Amino acid sequence: MAAPGGSSGTSRRLVQYVVVRADLVRTLAWPLGAVITQACHAATAAIHLHYSDPDTQEYLAELDCMHKVVLEAPDEASLSSLSDVLSREGVAHKLWVEQPENMPTCLALKPYPKENVHHLLHKFKLLK
């Protein structure tokens, strides 16, 4: 059933992608809750930074129908490389760098239509 009050009336799907370093848990033994916190920081920051963007506003307007996809990057190098690619392609995102460690832990894109950004993320698997 369609959500009442939807702003677009279209069938396009807005998705917020979050990419988390898998090695934080698997190699560095971070608690799962700490890793989830990093993803929450990145997602919130990306929404905040792009709050006035029309896709972000549409995404937020359908609060009960938000779609997020959480992917895993193997390590810091792959996460940083992805951030570089996204920047070159003009894809708005936030690379979350944990302080005071100055350690990139994850990144989140602003909400986008899935078909606009999926091709840049297809090599990353769902976080397990």
From TrEMBL:
The keyword Metal-binding does not apply. Signal peptide: none annotated. GO terms for molecular function: hydrolase activity. The lineage of its organism: Eukaryota, Metazoa, Chordata, Craniata, Vertebrata. It catalyses: an N-acyl-L-alpha-aminoacyl-tRNA + H2O = an N-acyl-L-amino acid + a tRNA + H(+). Its EC number is 3.1.1.29. Keywords: Hydrolase. It comes from the Eukaryota. This is peptidyl-tRNA hydrolase. It is an enzyme of class 3 (hydrolase).
